[in-house]
Amino acid sequence: MLIEKKSLGEIAKALGRSKSTVSLEPKRNSTPEYRLYMSHRAHGRAEERKKQTDTHQRLKNERIETYVRTAQRWLVASLAEPRIIK
Predict the structure, then answer these.
(1) What is the DSSP string of 15-26?
(2) Measured at the alpha carbon of residue 29, what is the angle toward residues 28 and 33, in degrees to the nearest 5?
(3) Is 48 inside a domain boundary?
């Protein structure tokens, strides 16, 4: 659609996405050498980023991890309790 010289608004409407999302896609995934957007390369970059996100440790600080795990247990327990609706 970019090759067809369609506006970002037209592309966004056709894809059911916001105009800001559509404008960020070519900026994020264009080739650095030529500033050219190629969908197959963009997809490959997205797959690589997806693999890398799985390797990050989310809760590095032990105190934060303990807090989050405790909050999760509390939330699950509170949702599991039967409630009486009047």
Answers:
(1) HT--HHHHHHHH
(2) 105
(3) yes
Q: Is residue 71 helix, strand or coil?
A: helix
Over residues 18-75, the pLDDT tens digits come to 999 888 887 777 777 767 777 788 888 888 888 877 666 666 778 888 888 899 888 8
Distance of alpha carbon 4 from its chain centroid, rounded? 27
pTM: 0.43
CB within 8 Å of 4: residues ≥ 6 apart: none
Whether 86 is in a domain gets the answer no
Q: Does residue 2 sit within a domain?
A: no
What is the maximum span of the chain, computed from C-alpha positions, in angstroms? 66
Q: In which domain, by residue range, is 27 found? A: 8-80
